[in-house]
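Case study 2.
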Amino acid sequence: MNKRIIFSLLFGAALVLGTTTTLQAQDAESYESLMKKGNEKFNAKDYISAKTYYEMALKQKANDPTAKKKLDESVKKIQEDGAKQEIFYAHLDTGDQFYSQQKYEEALAEYERALQVFPNDKYVTGQANEVRAILKERQDKQDAFDTAMSLGESLLAEDNFDAAIMQFETAAGIFPNDKLPKEKLTEARQKKQLYTEKVARFDKLMEESRQFGLRKNYEAAIEKIDQALELFPNDEEANSKRDEYQTAKGVADRYNGIIAAADQLYENKAYKEAKAQYQSALAVVAGDAYATDMIARLDPLIAQQDAEEAARIAAEQEAARLAAEAEAARLAAEAEAARIAAEQEAARIAAEQEAARLAAEEAARIAAEEEAARLAAEAEAARIAAEEEAARQAALAAAEAERQATIKSMLDAADAVFAQQDYATAKVKYQEVVAFDEGNATATAKINEIDNILAQMAAELEANYNKAMSAGNQAMSAELFAEAITQYQSALVYKPEDATATAQLAIAQKSENDRIAALRAQYDKFVKEGDGYFRSNTFDKAIEAYTKAEELGLETYPTEMIARISEIIEQNKLYELNSEPLLLAAGQAQRFDFNKIEVAVRRSNYIIIKVRNPHPEKTFPMIVSFGGAGGKNGGFVLPIAATEEEKTFLFRIGSQYKWFSEDNTWIEVVSENNEVEIGKLEISRSN
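Prediction:
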């Protein structure tokens, strides 16, 4: 139930209860006396007092048909009076609204309709006469004035502030004493200032975003552009730039990840693998200077590394060759020494036996020569065989050393990628080791380890994906679309480009956009209502509308306007009737006197009263009455809630006809069934 409805019902309760307290002392009167007084009040059209007397008469004679009939007639009259006042104020409020808008013909028509309800009302009669005088005075200038004001309003609505100001200045020149053009000028200038400041903030944020973008700090650039979009959500350039930065951020994140891996390989002197990563970075950011420079820096390092490796292998091969040649030379020298020794021994034997041999047959000489030739051939064959074996063993040793060096290099490269947690690439490299060195235990163990890691990661990704999707679906069911968006985005982190998560994310984003759009429409409606009531100084209804807008939580403007209204009411205080806490006993009446208020001010009057319930376990009504020298004129009832917290009530008392039409000089407060603490009690005005 909104505040305005509560006030209306409370006012109705005040009419019913308004005179009960003042007449309780007469409960002992006779039925006839009470009926007589009731009839006198009824005939005097004081139906509220009459109703109270008839109720008291029914206490003396329960179910009396005459008293019941008169009570029903009084209630009907009260309701008719209430409806009559509602009609009067509806025309009066509309007339005042038209008057504030300088729609004087419409205002005069409404004032005349109000006078049909209360023909002698001084305020409305004065307003109608003033409007007639204005219409007579400005008839010749009206068209030009209305055109300037209308055009100014249209230009102001289009945020064409300078042109609007020019039109309002033209209108003010036509009618210098007219308040509305001056008010509109102030409004246009204030809006221009606010808009200029807003544009300046927007431009500053966009420039800061651009600077971050130039430095490729896309996250900060997006943050600044989001702040700018809070000011102008529909700005095409800002939205386009945000999309551009979002795309660039994705590219930069991929590029930075690859560059980090490449830099680590470079530091580990895995130059070939580092070059491959820098080339991958160029595939993400074509022509990147850093990656290009690093590749250029790596090429000579790789060439140097290859040359050093070739030199090492050549040196090892040369050493093996020299060792083989040395061994062959040693064996040849030993064979030659043996041969020479054999020849010398044969010569000695031949010399010793020369005399005998001279007598030997020619066959012995030939046999000796053949034996020497055989021994020489065997020695030569042994030398050649030794040289060949040494060369074979050296070649095998060199080949095995080269093979082991290759395996180690491949394992080091795979280990470097594994350390970077690039498990898929690492597995391929370990498989290359196994293909080169079948059954390599280290590589086989690493492949098994990677398979286990990938399986675990896949299981974790699947579990996290399912968890995020479940949470997103639950949030969607609860219409918590922002939470659903976050969860579906998380799911897409675990399963990029997943069709289900992508589709659900799109649905959630649309639902959230629709929800925000609906909230925005409601918010704009309430703010527009609040602004309209604020401009017409109908602060109770303005607070009601701003409170509804405030509860939507979109902006601080409604809160600021409620505070502004409170400040205006405090600044326009007419009377401070009570400032220190005052404790009233149950049934105790406390009257506060003040001087009568000028009739021109009464229509905009408000009563502000702070109340605290010292006994929060109870709820009860508290009657607030007002009147003058002739007695009570009206009042209302406050529902005191079951809370010890101090409550502040704001009532547009000027909407009650008896406050508006009579010279009231006192306000009285009575708590019927419980003691109550009265804090601040003030009479204020809206302008």
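The chain is about 75% helix and 10% strand.
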